[in-house]
Amino acid sequence: MAHGLMLAGHDVFLFCQKDSPLSRWTEHAEFPVHRDFNLHHLWPHYIVRGLHAYCRVLEEFQPDILNPHCPPGHSFFAVAKKMTGLRIPLVRTVADPRAPHKNAFNRILHERLTQGLIFTTESSANRYRQTVDFKHIRTKVIYPGFRADDFTKSIPCENFRTRFGIGADKMLAGIIARMSPEKGQEVLLRALASLNERERARLFCVMAGEDSRERGAADLLHLAQQLGVDEYVRFLPRLDDVRALMSELDVGIVTSTRSEAICRVALEYMSFGIPVIASDVNILPEVVLHGQNGWVFPNEDPAALAACLREALNNDIERKQRGQKGAALARSKFSLAQETAETLEFFNTLQTSA
After folding, report:
1. What is the DSSP string of 141-198?
2. Which of 70, 165, 204, 216 suits a disulfide with 211, CB 3.0-4.6 Å?
3. How far apart are CA 100 and CA 114, in angstroms?
4. Which run of H or E residues covers position 79?
5. HEC string of 112-146?
6. Residue 276 forms beta bridges with which residues?
7. pLDDT tens for each residue of 287-299
8. Who contacts 77 (Cβ-Cβ below 8 Å, separation ≥6)?
9. For the whole prediction, is pTM greater than 0.85?
């Protein structure tokens, strides 16, 4: 989002968590970044240091709007705004898979100190309504943006089909996610087991991602062997560049059982014109539109996933058409330009009414 605002001609100052993936990504950012404090530490030393840094930057940078994207940043900005006396809108962007706790602090923070809430998904907005009274807060759902054309250019050639010995007559499906329980790879393995032998013979699945502390590829391979589907699956470690594999897939699969408040991987599949089969968790059914750019199945339902695979297997033309619709959506509804335009419109509305 910061990059999108910068491209739209606005000055941006970004705060981020020390040693986080975002802090590493912003090492070569074209806008100023403060990354030298711990937002998540409750020790008084870190809190005071963080507030001092926030206040100093606000006084020097003189922003027109504050837009925290995480709960600690929300709290820091609210307090720093009070301390500096700035009369500017505070707008929280919510990409959390859970609603805030229902307590006095969160009621004050959201209902008195916050002027706007941007949600990355309708499901997040619905969860927040159970805790926060929206009566005096402006809200808007703005879907996450993605630069699809940049993602799909200059792709290295890896020839995964040739390496795996997969014929052109087979549908190549893939899950690209770390091997942790919430990513639900076992749902696909059980779905494969429920297909008949002739259907499985026309399908090959690749699962790429790093092992988690809870489990790894070896555990999933053991399950595949128990289910008798290991010959139809190949496990790969985390790939430094996933685009080569993605570009060869016929279907992208997201089997997540929880979280997914943004789900960038679904947008990545779509950017290549690949239809997506996804569980109905959080943002997924809002990005993967059943019957349009893919298929959606009930969470943790292998039989329903098998039915989606069967339909994709038996309808080549429909599968390709859904992929084309996904590519168009990735470059319109879910583009960074669209997200930036909607965000700026919302910011302007808040500034006008302030």
Report:
1. E-PPPB-HHHHTSSPPP--HHHHHT--TTSEEEEEES-B-GGG-HHHHHHHHHHS-HH
2. 216
3. 14
4. helix 71-84
5. CCCCEEEECCHHHHHHHCCCCCHHHCEEEECCCCE
6. 252, 294
7. 999 999 999 999 9
8. 54, 66, 68, 90
9. yes
Q: Do domains 2-145+335-353 and 149-330 have the same CATH topology?
A: yes
Name which of 228, 233, 232 is nearest 179 in CA terms: 233
Both structure tokens of 196: 């008949």
Token pair for 69: 């994207």
Give me the long-range contacts of 80-87 (CB less than 8 A, separation at least 24). 80/51, 80/54, 80/55, 81/113, 82/113, 83/51, 83/55, 84/55, 84/58, 84/59, 86/58, 87/354
Report which of 173, 137, 109 is spatially closest to residue 306, judged by C-alpha positions. 173
220-260 pLDDT, tens per residue? 999 999 999 999 999 999 999 999 999 999 999 999 998 88
CATH of the domain spanning 2-145+335-353: 3.40.50.2000
Residue among 205, 310, 186 nearest 249 (CA): 205
Domain segments of the chain: what residues?
2-145+335-353, 149-330
Cβ of 269: how many Cβ atoms within 10 Å?
31
Sign of the four-CA dihedral 108, 111, 115, 117? positive
